[in-house]
Design brief:
Blueprint (H helix, E strand, L loop, with lengths): L10 E5 L4 H12 L3 E6 L5 H8 L4 H4 E5 L9 H4 L4 E4 L12 H21 L4 E5 L28 H6 L3 H21 L5 E5 L3 E3 L9 H6 L1 H4 L3 H10 L4 E3 H13 L11 H5 L8 H10 L3 H5 L9
Parallel strand pairs: 1-2, 1-4, 2-3, 4-5, 5-6, 7-8
Amino acid sequence: MQSHEGRVGMKVCVTGAGGYIGSWLVKNLLQRGYTVNATLRNPKNEAKTGPLLSLPGAAERLKIFQADLCEEGAFDSAVEGCEGVFHVASPMDFSKLSEDDYVQPALKGVLNVLKSCSRAKSVRRVVHTSSTAAACPLNEEGELISGSTLDESRWTPVDFMRRKQDPFNFYYLSKTLAEKAAIEYGLNSGEMEVVTIGPGYVAGPGITSTFPVTCGEILRPITGSSEPLKLNESFLGSIPLVHIDDVCEAHIFLMEQPNVQGALMKMIIVFLCQLLLRNFWIWGFLISMLLKTFLIRLSNWPNLVDY
C-alpha cells in the first residue's frame, strides 16, 4: 500500500457509509486527502446522503454508489479503480427475529464485496470490520473460559450461539461467520490482502441523522434497562468500549501499513483501545476518552506488524 505521504488522491471504497463507523471513516479519509467511493443501500435517502455530501472535501473527492449486500456484482462499480476497500457494511437491526436476517446478508455481503474486489484487479487490500462479537472467550457450553486471551486464535463458538434463537446471538453468529469467510477468501486470494479488525462498543461524536445503536446501548444503565449490556458481558466477560476516532485511526492504520497480512491485526482494537473493566464500565469509557490519541502515537512504530 502507499505510504503515509503518498495517500493524497489515493482512491478507496467504504461500504456501509451511511452507518456510524462508515460515515465517520469517510470523514476521516476525506480529511487525509483520499478520494472516496461510498456505498449506500439507498442513495436517494437524503438522511443518509446529506451528512456525507456536506463533509469538507466531499464535492471534489466523494462519490456515492448504490449497492445491496445480497446482490452479486452490486459493488463492481464502487470498487473499480480503488486500491483499498473498507468493508464496514453489516446487518445490525435487532428487531429482526430470524437467523437468516443476520447471517445471510453478512455472509453474502462480505463475499460479494470480495469478489467485486477480485474482479476490479486494482484492489490491493481489504480491511473488513468485524467485532469483538466474533471473539467471545466461551467454550461450546457457553461458559467463560477463565484467563483466556483475546487474540487471532479466539473465535466465538458457533454451535452455542445457534442454540438460542435470539437477535443478539444471531448478530454474534453473523459477525463470526462473516469474518471467517473474509479471512479464508484472503488466504486463497493471490492478488490482494484481507485484514480484519474487531472493535467493541463504539462511542463518540457522529454525523449520522440517527443515534448510533452502540451509543444507545452504552447509555442504557442511565436511560433504561441494562439487560443487553449484561448479556454481552456474559459473552465477553467484560464490556469493551472504544472511541470512534480510535476505530477509524485503526482502520486507516491497517490500510496504510505496508506489511499487514491475514488476521494478524485482527484484535488491535481490543489490545490498544478498549478498557475491559467488568464492574466499572462507565469509568472505563471516560478514561478511554482521555486516552484516545494512543493509537495515533502508536502508528509511528513502522515495524509493529512486520513479521
